Structures are given as C-alpha cells and as structure tokens.
Automatic annotation (TrEMBL):
InterPro entries: NAD(P)-bd_dom_sf (IPR036291), SDR_fam (IPR002347), TIC32 (IPR055280)
Stated name of the protein: Uncharacterized protein
Family to which this protein belongs: Belongs to the short-chain dehydrogenases/reductases (SDR) family.
A Pfam family per the record: adh_short
Species this chain originates from: Selaginella moellendorffii
PANTHER family referenced in this protein's UniProt entry, alphabetically: SHORT-CHAIN DEHYDROGENASE TIC 32, CHLOROPLASTIC-LIKE
Length: 325
C-alpha cells in the first residue's frame, strides 16, 4: 500500500507558496498577461477550459483549437459570457490527424500572430484498441505524437515571438503520475513501435504520459543548445474528475464517480498548469516536472535522456514517413 501523501491531503504549501488546494486564480493573482498569446489544446471542458478561462481573465489572448469548430465556439462563449472583454479565438484541430495539425498551424501562422505560451493539455484514455488516422494507437497518437508535431511546427513562431518581445516563451505538457507505472525502458521501447498497434495493452496510457515528460526533457536540451528564450516543462495536474474518463467501461466510470469526492476540483486541477505557464518563479526553469505547483520528482525512466532522444528520433521518423505517404 502506497504511503499517504499528507501534503496533498492537507494542502500544504511548498516552496512556491502554493499547494494542492491552490486554484488557477490563486496562482495567477496579480499577473498581467495582456501582452501574451496562448494556445491551449483540450480547452473545451475540464482543466483545459479552466486554464483558458483564467489566462483570458488575466488578459491573455487565448486560442482554443478543437476537433470541431462548434465545440471550440461553445468554449469561447462560456468564457465570454463571464468575461465580456476576454480575447478568445478558435480553430479546428484534430490531434489524431497529422493533416489537421498542419492545417491548423498553417492557418494560425497566416495570421502572423505572436505565440508566447503553448499548453499541450488535450488527452484521451481509450478502452480497447483504437487507431489514429495514421494507424497509430490513439492514446500515443493524441497524447504524444499530435502534441509533438504541433509543438515542432509552432516552435519557430514561439522563438520569433520571444526574440521580438524579449518575453520568455513557455511550453507546458500535461503528463500524469501514471507515467511511473512503466519502470523498464525495454517495456517502453516495446510500446514505442508499430507492433503495439496489433494488441491493446493497459500500459499504453502510462507510456503516452511518460512520453510527455521525455518530450520536454529532449526539447529543453535542444532549446538550451539553440539559446532560445523558451522553457519546456511537464506536470501532473492531480486526479480530476473530467471527461477524460468517458471512454472507460460503465462500471469503472461508476467507481470513478464514487471516488470523485476525493478527487481534485477543476479549479485546483488547472492550478499547476497556470503556475508553470505564467508565474515568475518558473522563469528560466526548463526540462522539469511539477506537481501541486511545485517542482517534483518524476520516475527514473522519465529522467533517462538517452530514452528521451530515442523517443524524439522515433517520433520524427514516424511523422516523416507518414508525410511521404
């Protein structure tokens, strides 16, 4: 039985001055984001929507891309109804389709808009084997590969923005404590092949969340090598009762609903994301993992830089191969 996390239960504040009971509004209090533009994926509900709402509240121009424009517009309307002066834009983006990602980025770049903050928040948990448009297991495709490509295609815009504005750019990957389920690099490497498509395995979600951390580890190294004024970090938002559980079996969903009383409310679930994306305490900090608005320790596998490089190379090769087809 795992040890009781008393700091989480009591909401003990860490070095940052915030803890598990802090909300997204708490951690952004007094922060002026009126000169920032942010893209938040998965912002039509749950912690993504709360993240977008709070960033807009603090003055940021928030871009909400979604699989359907209708869903994105509904999220925008929800924010505007509370914050009439909020700057919110929408777009169509299916993270399970490389073509959709490229189209979204092309349309965004055509606006010649700046980009200061990229929050890779969208995620799925699948029940059984499902495949993306490129025939990759869907959790890995959306949770990692889609965000990997989106980040890669937007990086030049973020670098240009940071150079022109002299404001540090921030890339934030929403991972999960579930990443620690995988403890052997060979297990991850087996998942990280096309053979995974032939048989669903429950560790695939954990593998995709491990990939989120490994992604920022290697990305951070490359950004430092390029001397880019951009940081890249990953985080565990806490266990929040959101729509991410909607694809699980009804019995499991019922169990989760019962357990939801012990889960983190959405405003608290979005706190670490907003903290890492906006707070001055995170200036210059890159390639790290956060939890409860404080730096935390990720698994040894998530700190394996050789594995991070291997994943990066696999991701680039897979995307390039599909681009030629």
């Amino acid at each position: 039985m795992p040890p009781v996390d008393w700091a989480y239960l009591w909401g003990t504040k860490g070095e940052s001055g915030f803890g598990s009971r802090s909300t997204a509004q708490d951690v952004t209090e007094g922060i002026d984001l009126s000169s920032r533009t942010a893209i938040v994926t998965g912002a039509t509900s749950g912690i993504g929507l709360e993240t977008a709402r709070v960033l807009a509240m603090r003055g940021a121009h928030v871009v909400i891309p979604a699989r359907t424009l209708k869903a994105a517009e509904q999220a925008k309307s929800a924010i505007i109804s509370e914050l009439p002066d909020a700057k919110v834009s929408t777009g169509e983006l299916d993270l399970g389709s490389f073509a959709s990602i490229r189209t979204f980025v092309d349309e965004f770049k055509s606006l010649n808009a700046p980009l200061n903050i990229l929050i890779n928040n969208a995620g799925v948990i699948c029940r059984g084997l499902q495949l993306s448009e490129e025939k990759m297991e869907l959790q890995f495709a959306i949770n990692h590969l889609g965000h990997f490509l989106l980040t890669k295609l937007l990086l030049d815009t973020m670098i240009r923005t940071s150079e022109e504005t002299r404001i540090e750019g921030r890339i934030v990957n929403i991972s999960s404590k579930a990443h620690a389920i995988l403890t052997d690099s060979t297990d991850f490497q087996k998942l990280n092949t096309e053979n995974r498509m032939s048989n669903w395995h429950p560790t695939l979600y954990a593998g995709s969340k491990l990939a989120n951390i490994l992604h920022v580890k290697e990305l951070s190294r490359q950004l430092k090598e390029r001397r880019a004024n951009i940081t890249a970090n990953a985080l565990h938002p806490g266990v929040v009762h959101t729509q991410i559980f909607r694809n699980l079996r009804p019995a499991i969903q019922s169990y989760i609903s019962i357990c939801s009383l012990l889960m983190r409310p959405v405003p608290q679930g979005a706190a670490t994301t907003c903290y890492v994306a906006t707070h001055s305490r995170v200036n210059g900090i890159s390639g790290r993992y956060f939890e409860d608005c404080n730096e935390a320790t990720c698994s040894p596998l998530a700190n394996d830089m050789a594995l991070a490089k291997e994943l990066w190379n696999f991701s680039e090769s897979f995307i390039e191969a599909r681009n030629k087809n």
